[in-house]
């Protein structure tokens, strides 16, 4: 058995445009999602997250490349591949005339789960919908529908649960409840993959984060490691002297001259601290007139990771 719950190699997707001019949504990505991980697939709108998930779910046909789910190739062994994954889609799609209980029973039937092995009531209780078991699905709130979709994805007890943007339109209280259940599943050994465009969400929940942007994986590393990069700050130091180039004393830092009187220096916990930078400025004989800092946000990280300098490191 492979140690990866999901293994993606050279996965490419072009939407439409059989005669050329289609939309390149995935550029041939590689991605390993370790068994037992809580994995975040992070990226801005249109990055290619849903396309990746939908290919794994068998809802979108890939253009090139391969994917294995729990060791089963999605082309060679689609039944086994699908049996090992549960997917909670982004869209809340329902047959409004089924009750939650019926919906889970039908889904279990579709996966060939024998009646005596079904866990309909257990699942409804787990997602706090037992009291709605026999209500029409159309009467459920958005949050209830989302929870029902999680229960639906788990009817065949798959070792991998994928949640595509699970908190879109979900209030804070419900979000906590949802995460509580997801954490519980994870503690019981389920590999969890969630897509989000909120860094905070991935940061709070995931042990590993991959960042996807314009159809490319631009980073994939343990959350802690990634956050160190995000810890990066830019200090802008204004000086009275006119600057034409970065003084020698500041060359060990990643720095550049902005205008006639400003130096911008990038620092992170791992390479320097503010004190060292200020000491270097003074050693250079410059007179500081002002200092400001810019925290790096996710948008900056995307920009950094997609620039050529960082691209090599990420690959
Ligand atoms: N059915 C489709 N036909 C044509 N283009 C599509 C289709 N589905 C997605 N795309 C395009 O492919 C790219 C990737 O979309 P995808 O939905 O995978 O991104 P995403 O990261 O999931 O974004 P979001 O966070 O908005 O869901 C986007 O440019 C999108 O417009």
For the structure shown, list the relevant keywords.
315 residues, alpha/beta, Rossmann fold, Alpha-Beta Plaits, 2 domains, six-stranded mixed β-sheet, elongated, binds adenosine-5'-triphosphate
What does this structure look like?
The chain has 315 residues and is an alpha/beta fold. The chain is built from 11 helices and 14 strands. The chain has 2 domains: 219 residues, Rossmann fold (3-Layer(aba) Sandwich); 64 residues, Alpha-L RNA-binding motif (Alpha-Beta Plaits), CATH 3.30.70. The two termini are 26 Å apart. Adenosine-5'-triphosphate binds next to strand 2 and helix 1.
Order of strands, main sheet, comes to 6-7-8-3-9-10
Calculate the terminal CA-CA distance, rounded to whole Å: 26 Å
> Which class of the largest domain in CATH terms?
Alpha Beta
Average pLDDT across residues?
Answer: 86
Which series of helices and strands comes N to C?
Answer: EEEHEEHEHHHEHEHEEHEEEHEHH
Counting DSSP H or I runs of 4 or more residues, the number of helices is 11
Classify the oligomer. single chain
Tally of DSSP β-strands: 14
**Overall CATH architecture of the largest domain:** 3-Layer(aba) Sandwich
| Rg on CA atoms, Å | 24 Å
């Amino acid at each position: 058995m492979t140690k990866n719950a999901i293994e993606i190699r050279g996965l490419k997707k072009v939407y439409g445009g059989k005669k050329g001019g289609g939309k390149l949504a995935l550029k041939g990505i590689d991605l390993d999602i370790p068994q037992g991980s809580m994995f975040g697939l992070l990226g801005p709108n249109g990055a290619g997250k849903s396309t990746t998930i939908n290919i794994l779910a068998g809802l979108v046909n890939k253009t090139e490349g391969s994917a294995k789910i729990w060791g089963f190739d999605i082309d060679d062994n689609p039944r086994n591949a699908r049996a090992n994954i549960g997917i909670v889609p982004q869209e809340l799609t329902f047959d409004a005339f089924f009750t939650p209980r019926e919906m889970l029973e039908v889904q279990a039937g579709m996966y060939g789960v024998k009646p005596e092995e079904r866990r309909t009531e257990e699942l409804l209780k787990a997602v706090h919908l037992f009291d709605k078991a026999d209500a029409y699905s159309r009467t459920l709130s958005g949050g209830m529908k989302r929870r029902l979709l999680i229960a639906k994805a788990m009817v065949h007890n798959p070792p991998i649960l994928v949640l595509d943007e699970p908190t879109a339109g979900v209030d804070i209280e419900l979000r906590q409840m949802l995460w509580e259940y997801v954490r519980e599943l994870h503690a019981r050994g389920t590999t969890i993959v969630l897509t989000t465009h909120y860094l905070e969400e991935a940061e709070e929940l995931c042990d590993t984060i991959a960042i996807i942007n314009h159809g490319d994986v631009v980073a994939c590393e343990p959350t802690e490691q990634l956050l160190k990069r995000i810890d990066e700050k830019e200090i802008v130091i204004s000086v009275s002297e006119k600057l034409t180039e970065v003084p020698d004393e500041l060359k060990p830092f990643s720095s550049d001259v902005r205008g006639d009187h400003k130096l911008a220096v990038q620092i992170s916990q791992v390479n320097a601290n503010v004190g060292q930078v200020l000491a270097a400025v003074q050693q250079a004989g410059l007179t500081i007139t002002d200092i400001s800092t810019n925290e790096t946000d996710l948008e900056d990280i995307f920009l950094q990771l997609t620039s050529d300098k960082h691209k090599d490191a990420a690959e």
